Structure formats: structure tokens, C-alpha cells
Amino acid sequence: MKLFLAGIQREGDMPASPEMIAVKEFLESQIFAFDGVTGIDIGMRDEESLDPEDLAIRIFVQDASEISPEINGLIAQFPVPSIILQRRFEPIATLPDTEPHRPVIGGTSIQAARLANMVAAGTLGAIGQTTATPFPLTVGLSNHHVLAFDSNRSFGQEMIQPEPGVLGRWPNDVIGRLVNWAYPELVFSGLADAAICTIEIDSLAEILELGAITGRASESRGMLVRKRGRTTGLTFGIVTTDSTSASTRGTYMVRCERFPAVNNPFSNQPTVWRQLTNQFQIKADFPQTIFFSDKGDSGSAVLDSDNRAVGLLHGSAYVENDGSVGPATFAIATPIDVVEQQLGITLTATV
Predict the structure, then answer these.
(1) Per its UniProt record, what InterPro entries does this chain match (predicted)?
(2) How many CB atoms lie within 10 A of CB 99?
(3) Are 5 and 222 in contact, with CB atoms under 8 Å apart?
(4) Which of 68, 220, 238, 334 to pair with 279, CA 20 to 30 A apart?
């Protein structure tokens, strides 16, 4: 199976049919009015056999045992493959990491200094450069919910690497300052959970255990990917979402309780959930990887087997059957081209 998947290229993929895309777009305009719906995409129908040509519209819900009859009614109108999967998506939060890295390098821990010993530590995914400033600035890439996740954040706040250990902060731990972010803080829908800070000390444009980013690639179903995060280290995964166009990528719901509730335009009700569109899902490549990510891996850069940047990891997807939740088998990421456009950066320039 791995040999088969490794040879898959975007141009060789059997794309979703126009009928399937049209149905997905229609359902996407309707299903988020119902409580308990957590996402929709077009992807592999059977994530165990991992046949990239067997596609279905995939609707994700918090509890598959309590599906609204209206949802079943909507799906039943259309003669295209569709399935309902129990899965919820959450930002990947915090676990301890106290390893300093000098020069600063991707795949290591990072935290906002004002949140030291509190919350929101994550991964410094990669080192890049700005493209929308008068002259290029060296920057570190992570998630909004790591660097700028609450209403008290502001431009210029100090970022530290590593996060504090059991004895407190490390000497000379400030590596830069918050300069930009992308997230639907005060609106219902957005394209990314991403943020950057300046890197003001010596840095290396590489990712720990992976090396330098060699270019940029679009994710495709069946693509073998990997990431290096501060909690689970180097892990391997397989893209399961059809991403031949923005219309077939995923739309997923995540909780955002640190900003005011906003109006859900589908139900016309206030909500603390936010909708992230144009995303993709990754499944752990078992048996070499049991869990693709865990708490603290937020902000990891997702690379393909040629070390090309593919996406920015920001969330885990959990399946709850008995009320317990462990490390996530699935993860969600934003395509790297979207991240670069939203933040005005490039990860492929020489730093």
C-alpha cells in the first residue's frame, strides 16, 4: 500500500465529479444550520483501505447516534456517494517542552511571553521571510491560537523559545515579536489559524530532524506527509481529503471561546464556534506512526516526502466512543499557499 500511495501525484488523481462538487457545495450551504455538525469535505470514503480513487462527500458530526432527520433527508436527495463520520475538531493545545534551540530552528517550542507558565504553548513550525514589507523580515510561523489566541494580544508582544520549564523561564529566551495573524476572531468564517513573529536572533531556515524546506507543493489525497512538532516529534501521515480544488477541500468547525460569540449566518444564532474553510485532513500513517499529532504540536509545518511545504497543522480530529479522548489519529491543516497569502510570507526564500 505504501508503494502505491507514494507514487500518487496530483495530476494523476481522478478528480471528484462535477455532480459531487455541486452537491457538496449545496450541502455546505445548508448543514451548518444544524447543531452537532462539525465539518464537510470530499475525501477517501474508506480511510482504512485508503483507496484515493474511492471518493465520497464526508459529513462530520459530534455524535453519529444522534443525527438530525433533516440531515439524512438532505443527503438522500442526491445519488452521489456520501457518508457520515463521527469526528470533532479542536485546536491542538499545550503540553510542557523546555528544550532551547540556538540558533532558532523550526519544529521546536514557542510561546507568547505574557502567557508564560499559563497556556497556549505550541510549535514554531518553520522559519521564513515576509513578502509584503518594504524589506524582508525573518519570521517564525505558528498558529494564531498559539501566538495571538485571545483579545489581549497586540503587535510587538514578545515571543519566547522555549516555553518555561519547571524552574521558570530560560535566560535570553526572547526570540522576537508578534507581527501578524490570520483567524476569524470577530466573524464566523475564515481561511486560516496562523500567526508570525519576527526572529531577532540567529536562526536556521530548517526544521529539526527534517532539514530545509525545498519548495512548495499542493496537498493531494494519498500524499505521504510528515511533520516535526514539540510534543510528538517526527510523525508521518497520509492526506485523506480530496484537494483538487477549493470546492473539494474541507470546511470544519472549531470552538473559539476567548473571543466574543458571533452570528452563525446559517442558523442566525450566536455561536462560539468558528468555521475554517479550504482545509485538509491527515490520517496517521500506521504502523510507523500511531498518532499524527497531540497537544502542543500546533503550528507544525507539514511537508511531503521531498521536504516541500504542504500545510500548517492547527487542529486535531477526535473520535469519541466511550467519552474518553486520547491523542488524535486525524489532524487538520491549512494549505501552505493559503497561509503564505494570508500572512504575506514565503517559507522558500533563503533566510
Answers:
(1) Peptidase_S1_PA (IPR009003), Peptidase_S1_PA_chymotrypsin (IPR043504)
(2) 13
(3) yes
(4) 68
Domain endpoint, select from 165, 194, 209: 209
d(CA 226, CA 316): 15
Q: What is the pLDDT of residues 11-61, one digit of tens each?
A: 445 678 999 999 999 999 999 999 999 999 999 998 887 788 899 999 999
Q: How far apart are CA 231 and CA 111, in angstroms?
A: 14
Q: Can you say whether the dihedral through the CA atoms of 164, 180, 313, 66 is positive or negative?
A: positive
How many other CB atoms are there within 10 angstroms of residue 351's CB atom? 15
Count the neighbouring beta carbons within 10 Å of the beta carbon of residue 252: 23
pLDDT, tens digit (0-9, with 9 covering 90-100), for 273-297: 999 999 999 999 977 887 888 888 9
| Gap between the Cα atoms of 173 and 189, Å rounded | 35
- Does one domain contain both 298 and 193? no
Phi-psi region of 132 (alpha: psi -120 to 50; beta: other; left: phi over 0): alpha
Q: What is the rounded average pLDDT for all residues in the chain? A: 87
Top-ranked range on mean pLDDT: pick from 60-64, 228-232, 299-303, 328-332? 299-303
Q: Are residues 218 and 315 in the same domain?
A: yes
- The total domain count for the chain is 2
Average pLDDT for 169-177: 95
Q: Is 209 left (phi over 0), alpha (psi -120 to 50) or beta?
A: left
Distance from C-alpha of 250 to C-alpha of 72, rounded to nearest angstrom: 20
Q: Quote the domain boundaries for residue 46.
A: 2-89+212-336
